[in-house]
Batch of 3 targets.
Target 1
Amino acid sequence: MHLDPAAIGAAVRNLIAILRPDGTLYLSWRVTDDASMRDPSGRLYAAFDKRAVLDELPADAAVLVDSDVVSASSGKRIQRLIVRKA
């Protein structure tokens, strides 16, 4: 969520590349609707569709968890993906 949306694909490919076979990748990010924004501290909250992540996964990767929930602590929407590399 703190990456420029144009960098998400490369980041996912790099994470998958360093994962061992049968390794598990856990990704979560705050869902930002409409446009990217910065909080008062300057942190970027990028607006992007989860397809930007899913489309970079290898065809034989298994998505174990795909959830969109509201955080009990912040009240913000959180997307969680847990993926197993073949």
Target 2
Amino acid sequence: MIAQFNILDSLKSKLNNYRPLPSDIVKNLQEELILRWTFNSNAIEGNTLSLQETKVVLEGITVGGKTIREHFEAINHKEAILYVESLVTDDKPLSEWEIKSIHALVLKKIDDTNAGRYRNINVLISGATHRPPDYLSVPDKMADFIRWYEGEAQSLHPIQRAARVHIDFVGIHPFSDGNGRTSRLLMNLELMKSGFPPVVITVKNRLEYYQALDTAHTTQNYVPFTQLVCTAVEESFEPYWFALGVTQAS
């Protein structure tokens, strides 16, 4: 794993040599990323909009035969990405307030009653062995999560820390809905704060993704999920190399 981290660190250093990137490249990469990230993150949770349908929804066009909720899921996710990018730009520390703010955007106009509020019910994760904690313990669990983040987590490699943020957050499952999307936003917040490109966990890898998460939650073996994130990080550099007209080996 350390060897992989070293490879990814070298890719980040290589990309840093091209920064600041030309504004037109930045704009193009951002638009493409928002589309792929939004489509895949929502599709993992069951949204039936295709990639092209997601694109037109983000452009303000209504797609026939799709639910209002699916439209809001796309629109909200884009807003949440932009908010996460602003947190990176402003170098805001991770806090419960920021987590709740991200979640509030994810569920805006979908479930305003629960948006940005910890759950007051017990929940099960469909298909998973892991059972999230009782809702009464969620506030304490989230406070512990932030203390861990501010302390022990800072000694981890940024990719390892980002993976653990995702694992531990979704293990608590602090909200009644929207935990998956929020956890992926938090993971990418960590990656971007450390200078790595955000990753897209694709819907085609949904089974591997869920299995790796459940393994982490039930056995405390974080390697499969961290490995999955490492692969996604490496893939996240590819659009940059293409846009810059360079090869990974150069």
Target 3
Amino acid sequence: MNDFENQKFCQSCAMPMTDELFGTNEDGSKNEDYCMYCFKDGEFTSNISMEEMMNFCIDKMVEVHPEIDKDEASSMMMEVFPKLKRWAND
């Protein structure tokens, strides 16, 4: 298996995660499904829709990956976000 196959992604915002980016459960333990920006103390940090999350993440993705434009980022997110655990039942 390569590193990408072992890579964990936040199941809310799709950010690649490392151990230090894991969110926290109510008891303070690490939550490996969600990042610290989306999930803290057992709750989501914001009550937003999938579309709102995607719009927020598009700008961040373009900022981090200048080789990708907003249309490409949007297309990628339209493919990925509906499959993430947080949004799969919407």
